# Entry
Amino acid sequence: MEQKHGKIAEPIKWVVEDPERKEVWWPSPELKKRAWVSDESIYEQSGKDPIAFWAALAREGLHWFKEWDKTYEQDPPYFRWFIGGKINASYNAVDRHISTEKRYKAAIIWEPEPLDEPARVLTYYDLYREINKFANALKSLGVGKGDRVGIYLPMIPEVQIAMLACARIGAIHSVVFSAFSADSLRSRLMDAEAKVLITADGYYRRGKIINLKAEADEGIKGTTVEKVVVVKRAGLNVPMLEGRDLWWHELMKGAAAYCEPEPMDSEDTLFILYTSGTTGKPKGVVHTTGGYLTQAYWTTKWDFDIHDDDLFWCTADIGWITGHTYACYGPLLLGATMLMYEGAPDYPEPDRWWAIIEKYGVSIFYTAPTAIRMFVKYGEEWPRKHDLSSLRILGTVGEPIDREAWLWYFYNIGGGRCPIIDTWWQTETGGTLINSLPGIGPFIPTVAGRSFPGTRHVVLDENGRRVGVGETGSLVQLSPFAPGMLRGIYKDPERYKELYFSKYGDEIYYTHDGAKVWDETYNIRLGGREDDVMKVAGHRLATAEVETALTDHEAVAEAAVVPAPHEIKGEVPVAFVVLKKGWEPSEALEKEIVAKVVKAIGPTAKPQAVFFVHDLPKTRSGKIMRRILRSLMKGEPVGDTTTLMNPEVVEELKARVAGAASK
Ligand code: WTA
# Structure
């Protein structure tokens, strides 16, 4: 941007105005000129030979110790990319950059939550040193290639250092969201059979210090974890178990400065990330190295049009896939500068995010609809207090964004100048897959866009036939599958096949999302999950997980959980509970039951309401008809109840829900 007398000149319009008021925007000539991709023919060209297309991208974007022998192979429902290629993620994220002019460029600018604490800036060289040393520290603890390492850290730079140190020595990281409970941590560590856990004493959240070590201590009970590495972040006086617990800073003192990066096979596992499926037990989504890195690199570069002078801020927590790909791997592979913030978006005031954008001059900002809805409620006076003219591109992810939130974001944060890139993807897909590209457009509220070049998604009806323009159906991905797609569910090949490659056969990936074909060019509007997975404030949660936690309570005979619409969080769980004989509903019991869920999963899963009922609507074969409960919560007609074994319960349920609503 042109500087005039130290003041930033009139901000550039990155999108052209919408004179016809159709709510369709296009990139401005400035944006087209600057964008990495601006020629629409990329879609057609990449579609002719997607395998060759990705091979060229993998070659250009990444450093391979040895090139692959074969680019793509498919053995349904499995597939592999860059077979025989040798690569290391941490080498690509740091070593490559320190021999270029990026050597002393800021890799991470970290803003702590307390206002009186200084920011931390890590250059690529700093990051390189820390990763090497921590990789050696892990080795000294006996961690080697293929071992699993649990990471239970808040948003501090040690999280990227830990992830990349694992990748450097070929260990598999499994990051667990720091707000998850000890019980959630335990089940994930157990499933992954982790050898080491990396955590912190505590961290700041809304001005308070959260004692993370206490949760970690509880969470590792009964697991295979032998050593716990503890980052001193909050200065808490936490108990350290002799022989098991080690301070990060002490381990680092003795660690050698260089660690040879392990040449990994392209298809070696890079990480496992647990996510909610349709059962009570979260599943370990497995991502491998070469393909994931290729998709991370190119989607970060093209979706957000990142250049060397940009400051990229993805607000997602590292505990989610968005944090993995866009707050760690993607930006670092590119040698970009990213911002990272420790705390709550609205602390100490609802303008904290906007203050951060102004302070550092963030140019690309990627967040979630739930956050936008929260800021809509706070009001536009908060962003108005700040100079947000450094912003160039805005992104959103995690759930469908409604028109009102889109337009608010567009005008109040982007000043009507910045395109909104609405990216559709999943933990399973590793990187974004459906969105408009900044230099091509269009930018339409509620419409994500087209398949990323080199990938193909279509919308099918129940019989597997493609639906036409304007019609809705199930979103699927066609082969060749995107390089960053999951390669399996940890230790559960059956579930992998059943969840993703059974609905339409083993050569079509079923996304579990509904979608509408928007127009002739195959722009897509997403419609939400078709299964029993909720999005609570953008966090993925299976109704079955909450039900399992509920039925673990001694008073609960049966429970059904469904999402209820929520103004800010999008959806929240509500529970219908049948008590065992001898138990009476009471407020105290309700509190106890709710606490049980929070303990089992975390605060995200907290039911908004508990309805004690005599019976749940069931089919003749005894299956709970959640569809009826869902409709009740949405205030929609319950539809056909003739297939129910006990249609009479519907009236009781209606009365209970209506009673609660009128309270
Ligand atoms: C939903 C998040 C509409 C979708 C990266 C998907 C979206 C699930 C969008 C995956 C979007 C994600 N528009 N819906 N732009 N992005 N979703 O695994 O239902 O946490 O299946 O990954 O979020 O959630 P996950």
Summary: The two ends are 54 Å apart (CA to CA). The chain has a mean pLDDT of 95. The CA atoms of residues 471 and 516 lie 5 Å apart. The first strand starts at residue 3 and ends at 4.
